[in-house]
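Lecture 7, part 2: worked example. A protein chain together with adenine.
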Amino acid sequence: MSALLDEQRGLLEQLSHPRRVQRAGRTFWCGQWYGQEVVLVLTKIGKVAAATTTTTLIEAFGVDRIVFTGVAGGVGAGVNVGDLVVADAFIQHDMDSSPLFARYEIPLYGCSTLACDVALSTILLEATHAALTGTTAHFFNEKNLVSPHIHQGLIASGDQFVASAEVASQLLDGLQAAGFSPLAVEMEGAAIAQVCRDYKVPFAAVRTISDRADAHAHVDFSAFVQQVASPCALSIMSRFLQML
Ligand code: ADE
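Predicted complex, written out as structure tokens:
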């Protein structure tokens, strides 16, 4: 899964015997890649769209694991443009049912964070390391994104494109006051993680940092998704599939 076409461009060409299925206003591409049965789909943007896509993927296609590749805004210290973040858990930065429930707690779930599948995330982390030392490295050098780092940690999702340093630091301050230190922000991951938890489907996610969630975010984001996001996704996912 990815949110946008630019995050997934090039992956479709890898599928052998691709078959197109329309459901819930989305196009699902089914096929084989490195001997694995694969379904590619775009979630669209935001938590509800991502939840609908995930539910459809599980209910109508019977997938037994889900991986997301895409971009995110870096908010953690030292999480810079071009770095990669493999999620170990997700939180919704816009979840607030206080005073009924603690700030950030998902009502009736008894938790604020949703963990990713450890085994699947370990493979994804390995695939990301392999991708960075392979073809993507040349690609990053060309774009002057020298020595990108790979991080693993918490990602915060919400229905907001964060495009101001002030908003980003408010988000971060609130989360840190509650004991959470996210590395990046995006708009889908926590929703996918929640649906996957409901259905007990293993989930892993990797996000390339396209911007620093500040006033330049929209400019950095647009250029990045067009130029970097797809080659990254392609490189990581082809290695990932061979490691399964
Ligand atoms: N995805 C990529 N950059 C983002 C940002 N700054 N805010 C939310 N989602 C993003």
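The beta strands are 16-23, 26-33, 36-40, 66-74, 84-92, 113-115, 150-157, 184-186, 203-211. The longest strand covers residues 66-74. Keep this in mind for problem set question 3.
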